[in-house]
Q: What sequence folds into this?
């Protein structure tokens, strides 16, 4: 993904990749993984994925002892694992953690298209805090000022 961004902008491999990904409106790798997992969980919870995936996810509201909790509306149960390296990467565990970290505005979307849009906006804001836009604006300003000073400044001849 980073190589493609560098190819699109014809940049060197030593140039920082974050501003390029920001201009393309692409997510960084960890956020892209969270995006894929979240979309899969949304589809599982709304019945458009196979049963072998849907059966792996358990909502808090499905457990009788936890039905009265505030988190019971949309949270998933994160099962305990013995091995941190392997168990935490399993779909039910990783997907439940990602899903539970999302705000209600995202998880309560009425359709897959709306969910994907809200999710990408949320993850994009997490991935690129306001610093990146300031950097891009500063770079654009420097380029414009350089152009103005170079080409439009009257020369003393």
A:
């Amino acid at each position: 993904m980073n190589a493609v961004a560098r190819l699109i902008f014809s940049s060197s491999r030593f140039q920082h990749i974050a501003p390029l990904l920001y201009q393309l409106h692409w997510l960084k790798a960890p956020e892209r993984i969270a995006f894929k997992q979240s979309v899969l969980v949304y589809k599982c919870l709304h019945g458009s994925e196979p049963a072998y995936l849907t059966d792996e996810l358990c909502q808090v509201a499905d457990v009788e002892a936890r039905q009265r909790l505030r988190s019971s509306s949309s949270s998933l149960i994160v099962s305990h694992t013995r091995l941190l390296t392997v168990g935490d990467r399993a779909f039910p565990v990783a997907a439940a953690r990602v899903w539970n970290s999302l705000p209600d505005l995202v998880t309560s979307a009425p359709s897959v298209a709306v969910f994907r849009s809200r999710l990408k906006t949320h993850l994009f804001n997490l991935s690129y805090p306001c610093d990146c836009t300031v950097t891009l604006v500063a770079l654009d300003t420097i380029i414009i000022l350089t152009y103005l000073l170079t080409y439009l400044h009257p020369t003393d001849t």
In short: Residues 132-136 have pLDDT under 50 and may be disordered. DSSP finds eight helices and no strands in the chain.
